Every structure is written in structure tokens, then in C-alpha cells.
Amino acid sequence: MTRHAPLDKNSHRDLRVRTDVGADLGDAVMATLTVPNEFRNIQGHFPILFRREAGQSDFIAVALFGFENGENLFLEGDRWDARYRPLSLAIQPFLVGRPASGDGPGQVHIDLGHARIGGDGEGVRLFDENGMATPYLEAAAERLGALDEGYRASAAFFAALRDYDLLEPFTLDIELDDGSKNSLVGFHIIDEAKLRALDAAALGRLHGEGHLMPIFMALASLSQISELAARKNRRMRDG
Fold first, then answer.
1. What does the H/E/C string look like for the chain?
2. pTM (predicted TM-score)
3. Most buried of 68, 121, 173, 221, CB within 10 angstroms?
């Protein structure tokens, strides 16, 4: 059960956070949120797909880890098997809190009900003996700020994709070495044909607004789907 609270050096002076990885810590997920300013780091490891949240009209971008709910092919027991860890996982159990209006500067909040909250001396301290933020907390706050900035800027990115109709539905059927099939449905990808058909003015606008690079990164990331299938085959073969 989530219990969000503003992070406070007095109330949370002795709080610790576990920084290891594991299914019991929330890492057993098929996909996680990513944002356009992170696509360059994501594309070398994970496919970037787009989807609508249930009951929502707006798209979000996700980094794909597996083909089934709860499957993370980059989670090897207590080891993260990739050189990059997406921000939305790396910042847990922290989040940004804002006034109900949504305006104003963000504040670091913490989910006191998260599995990463350490107990009995487990984990890394957030504040030192003098109540100052530890290097771990400073790094976490920096990552949280980068994710929040990217999320708030992503509305303009998705608006541009809508303006030029650059998202197309994506269905993937993968046959594995044992003959079984995995299907991905409900996702979208960049429509490369429509991107290629854009005129110079449209491309100039996308470039000028900073959207062209993340579009290219999202397209490049699709080459990781074959590597994801290879990971699935290895896991099924090795048990």
C-alpha cells in the first residue's frame, strides 16, 4: 500500500532505502515509463514503444523488458543485466509532489509503503548524522528531477506526433525456439513511412522544437526487439 509523504530531514533522518534489485523490490515488470529526453540512453538496451493508459487519451512511452505481464528479461535474480537502468525504476521509492493545482515547484516525496524502504539497518541512509542529504539522496533527487522535467516536456512531443500522425498501431508475433509464440498488442510505434514523407518545413519544425532526435532514437530502439527475443529464448533454454 502506497504512503506518500514529503521527504523531511527531521521525520526521515534515520530512514534507509534498499538499492539492490529483485522481484520483491518492484523490478519484475514487463515495461516501465520513459520520456523523450531519456530515449538516447534507452535505445541502446530496450525497445521504446508507445501506449495509452487505460481510460486515457494521451500516449506515454515505455521501455520494454519482456513479452508477458510481470516478465523482466533484464532481471537475473538480484542482478540487473543491462548497462543502463531507466529513470522511472532508478528513482523508486521517490516521486515528485506538487500542489493540487499542478503548478509550482516540485518537492521530493517518498513512498513509505514501498518495498525499498529498508528495515533493521538495511539499505542506504538518506541523511547523515548532521541531517544533510547523503550523496545517494542527492543523486536520486537529480534523477528524479530529470524524469520530472522530461515527463512535463513530453506533452509537446506527443502533440507533435499527433500533428503529423506519426504513430501507428504495432502488433508483434514472435515464435520462440521451442515453437511457442509471444504476442505484443496494444502498442504503437513511429510510422517510419510517414516520417520519410514529411517535407523540409515539417522536418525543420520537428528539429527546431527538439522532437526529431527522440523520434530517431525511438525508431533505432526497435532493433532491440530481436535481442529481447534472444533473451527470452536463453531464459527458456537455461531455465
1. CCCEEECCCCCCCCCEECCCCCHHHCCCCCEEEECHHHHHHHCCCCCEEEEECCCCCCEEEEEECCCCCCCCCCEECCEECCCCCCHHHHCCCEEEECCCCCCCCCEEEEECCCCCECCCCCCEECECCCCCECHHHHHHHHHHHHHHHHHHHHHHHHHHHHHCCCEEEEEEEEECCCCCEEEEEEEEEECHHHHHHCCHHHHHHHHHCCCHHHHHHHHHHCCHHHHHHHHHHHHHHHC
2. 0.92
3. 221
